[in-house]
Amino acid sequence: MSVLDNFDSWKGFLANKLQQAQQQGMSQQTISNMAEEVGDYLAQNVEAKNSEEAVLRELWNAASEEEQQALANTMIKMVQNQGNN
Can you tell which superkingdom this protein's organism belongs to (predicted)? Predict the structure, then answer.
């Protein structure tokens, strides 16, 4: 099973990778830039595996570059807060 098959698995995977990046001293701006690159890649190359990913893909494809940056930052905040809920 791929981490993309289940949205909760995907969020957990992202949270883990985000924590690793922060522990390695990666700046918030670098993390944000990488999140935007991942969003571009997924929207262009990966078929959505569930309804949540389909909605994110539609939002990403409809968004301007500035809005995509906001979506990427929102995903970062979402997975950062995942452990706090």
Answer: Bacteria
